[in-house]
Structures are given as structure tokens and as C-alpha cells.
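Now for our specimen.

. . .
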Amino acid sequence: MNCVKVALNLPLDKLFYYKVPEELTGQVKIGKRILVPFQKKKLIGFVVEEVKENHKNLREIIKIIDDFPPIGNDLLLLGRWIAEYYCCSIGQALHSVLPIQYPFKADKDKLNRKKSSFSLPVSHKCRGEIDALLKEGKVILLRVENWEKRIDLYLQLIKGVLEKNRQVILIVPEVSYIPPLQKALQNFYKGEVSVFHSKLSPRQRYNQWWRMKRGEVDLAIGTRSVVFSPFPKVGLIIIEEEENLAYKQIEVPRYHVREVAIKRAEIEQFPIVLFTQSPSLESWERGKEGVYKSISFSKDVKNFPQVEVVDLRKERDRIFSSPLTKTIRQELEKNRPVLLFLSRRGYANFLLCRECGEVIRCPNCNIGLTFHLRDDLICHYCGYRQKAPQVCPLCRGKELHRVGVGTEQVEAEAKKRFSGIGIRRVDLDAINSPLAYKQLLNNFKKGKSDLLIGTQLVIKEEILQRVSLVGIILIDTLLNLPDFRAGEHVFQLLMKIKKLMRGDGKIIIQTYNPEHFALSTLKKGKEEAYYEEEMKIREELGYPPYLHWVRILLEGRNKDKVEEAARRTEEKLKGEKISFLGPSPCPFSRIKGKYRYHLVLRDENLVRIREVLKKRLISLFVHFSNVKVAIDVDPLRTM
């Protein structure tokens, strides 16, 4: 071998040729990482192809990083697919497939280590159907609402795979899901479990990855990147709560775990099981069309909590309506804990001057600063903080008014109305570490908190199973977000609350839009009706999943340059036979000092969109000065 093609972690859709020095001949293998010179720097890249013909004037490889290829042929194929599908370079994709900094060194004394023993309960409740599912070898969508049923299914799935001497990958949306799930599984599963997520140190991640690579463990639990587990013989990937937004990576490559897992299963020939309480619209549609095998393990309708929708247009109090206040008092008198949910933290959403009509905004993001108690104004996007002014900095007016509702204000009002009880606020300002959350949960279980007031942090099964009432203070803050998926996300959130609560509980939703079909179908218990109505709207408007969307985000500190980049992108697209929206300022048009414009390319055929990107736009983007371009295939957010 005279030279090789190398994939570097650069936003360039090309491979680079390097010469193999004589002393390294025979040691350079496909899938290994090597150190190479690039311009005036030294970069780590992956060897992806051997080149037999001679190339003159090539720079030489500096050194080999790994003793053996950490990425095998299957993961290399997966990396190539990610690069193609999500419009990034192969180098960027492969560096995501192997998120490890340290070199892999051969360790002959440990390569043949015996696997840990395991024992699982012999359960016949669903074993037959599980075996049938595994034999189908396709994508299975399991709609499971009951925690015990879910754990039983996990155990049977894992047992069925391990008995065939293959490994299982269990993917969860957030780190906080791992401890309770791991604890529940290990009550029965006696084998070792590898845990892999971004909160681990680089050395811990390396050690866990190495254990999987050597086959020392048979079960791995982790967040997004565990989908790239280097198990020698994967037999199954399980994805918990497949509809969760956390499965879409924000950074390059902007992949979705579900799609990557399905592609890996296709390459390596094993089944995928997607667990959900309320599926994403894409998965629901694929289940209906038969692309996925959809199976439902639902509660009896009678076992769901009652849902009441309160029309705030008819109420005097915008925080505590009459029905909500009355029900809270009733539940507290019975010593039954209550949960109040609101999507916004702080005291008020922003500070408004009634004299000039302006809002006190973040100088970096041009977004209204959230008012907190202690007279702080904070931007929850960039972290900017300032003291609340006594007079308007624009007109010197003195009529500054707090607008909107946050968790701090709900907490203050609750203390006035419900005295003598334990009230606890649960948001990122109050609970800022896993330890703090664990202490909160322990105190809640011991009955030290009668009323919890929180954001998304409180929407957890271990909390919802213990409360008798959930009050949604103002669902409109989520329902009216400038994103076409807002209604879907609200419906999934409310269905999650409904399905995780006890059947004798109650949900009270306060809103200024009680006729919204996401709320009416929820109240009537007609989940399928919601999906069917939402699909009709998506079809009429040309939204996913009927059309593929690719979002092009342009960001820069100079507004004129960003606008010019958007205009030039539009000009390139005008001659193409492809539909697109924009360019226009993003709903949040300035964040962290950067102006933001976007366009959305849409077509039934994603290949056509990629061809336009490669033929017309990629070469254009390279020449933009001080404007960053982000390409997001199948975006989940457009804000």
C-alpha cells in the first residue's frame, strides 16, 4: 500500500490522500485513526480507503493512533450513510461514531475475558409475542403506558437476545432516565451493564467503550451516542420514549437516533423496538402504513385520570382559576400531593414600559429578559444578567410592568393562598444538579412537599405516579410557539402526563384556546383522532411527514452579511425545480449576538434536495464571509 484516503473532521465533502511511510507499511488499516499534517496543523483522521496507484507529492502520515481499527466495516458503512443522509462530511460523521479521544491498544490478556453470568425471571406473560417480534427482524413500535409492563417487556426482550449470545443496546433520551431504569432492570438482570453518556469523563467513556468493544458486557444503556456501541454482535436496539426531542442532535452531524438505529439494524440485520406512550407523528404514520409493526399495550380507558379544560377568558385570575383553586384545596385536605406545571421559569416573562411600549431586551439576543425575584433580569439563551431598572432605559418612563407568568410568581401566589403546607419550586434555578433532584425526590416521597411547582423537570414517572392532581397553569405558552410541531409536542406532553398518572387522578388545563383540537381530543380520550386531524393539516400545508424538509440556517454578527447570504442562496434556488420557504428571519432572529435567517427546502424525494444542495449550494456556502451555515435534515425545531 503506497497511500490511503483519509477522512478528517472538517466541513469539507472530500477525502484527503496521504502517503504511507515505509516504516508503517502493513500497519495502516481501514478504520484506524492516524495523525496527519494538514496545512500548518496536525489532525486526526480515519483511514477509509486504500489506494494502490501512485500519487506524487503527497504528505506522509505522521503516526498511527490505534493498534487495531476501533471502527469496523459495519460502523464505517453507517458513518458513510450518516454523511450522505445528513449532508455532512464523512470525517464529521465518523468522529461522531467514535466519540473517544484516547487510542485503542491491543490487550491480549483481556480480549478473551469470560462474560458475566446473568439470570432473568422466567415469565410467560408475553414471552410468545416477544419471540415472534424478534423473529420478524423489523422495526416494532410498542405503545406501552404501564411502567411494570414496560419493564417486563424490556426483560423479556433482553433475555431473548442474550440467549442467542448477542448484545442489546438500550437508548434513553436523557441521563436522568438511566438510574431508575438501570435499578429496575438490575433487580432481575444479574449481568454487568455498561453505562454510556456525555456526563462521564473522557476516561470513563473510553473505559465503557473498550468494555463493549471487547465483549465484556452484553447490555449497554445510554443516551444518543450509545447507538454507536462497538458490540461485536448486536442483536437488538431498544429506544425508550422514541418521540422525545432529545434524540435529534443539535451539532454536526445533526442525526436522529431513531433513523440511525434503523439504518444500523438494516446493515447488521437485527430488529429495532421503539417504546412510546404517544408516538411521534412520523412513527404513527409509519405504523399505520405498515412500515413499522405497531403493537399497543394500553390501559383500560376507565383507568385514565379525568381531564378538565378551563377557559381563562371567563376567569378573573389568570394563575389560579376557580376550578383549579377549589380542586387544589380538596386534594390538600385529603393529604394528597399536587403538581402545578408551567413551561417558563422566573417571575415574569418580560418587563414592559407602558409609556413607550418597549420591552427590556437582551443586548445579545434581542429577546425580552425574564424577570426574576431579587430584581434580576436574565436571558435564558445566553445567560446575560442585569439588575432590573427603576426607569425605562429608552424613554426614562417610570411605568415598568411585569408581563407574563413564571414559576417564581406561581410559587409566590401559592404561598399566599395555601398556607401551612410544604411548597417546593422545581426548575433549573432551584434544581441545578442530579444530587439536588435526588434530594427533592426523596423529600417528596417522605411527604415533605405537598405542592410542587415546576417546569419540564417535574414531568417524570416517579413524581406523576404520586400526585393526585396536575394543574397546567397556562398551556398557551407552548401551544403558541412559532413552530408547526408545537401542537404535536403539546399533545405528547399532555398524553404523557395522562398516561403516567394514577387512574383516580385529575388534570386541569388552563388556556385561552379551549377549542384547540389537541385539547379536545385529549379530553375525550380520542388519541387516534388527534393524529388523523394533525396529518390532514400537514398534508394540506406540505409539512412533514408528507414532505421532507431541509432547513438552512444562516448566522452571523453582521446583519447585512447574513441578509446578503440569504439573498444569494435564494437566487441559486430560483432556477431549480424544488419548493422552498423563505428566506426570512428566524422566529428568534438574534441569539447570542448573532443574526439568524433561514430557508426550508421541501420535496417528496430527499435525494432531489441533496442533489440541489451539492450542485448549487455547498460551493456557495464555502465562500460566505463571516456567515455560518447549518444544514438540518428533517428538523424537529424551526425556531
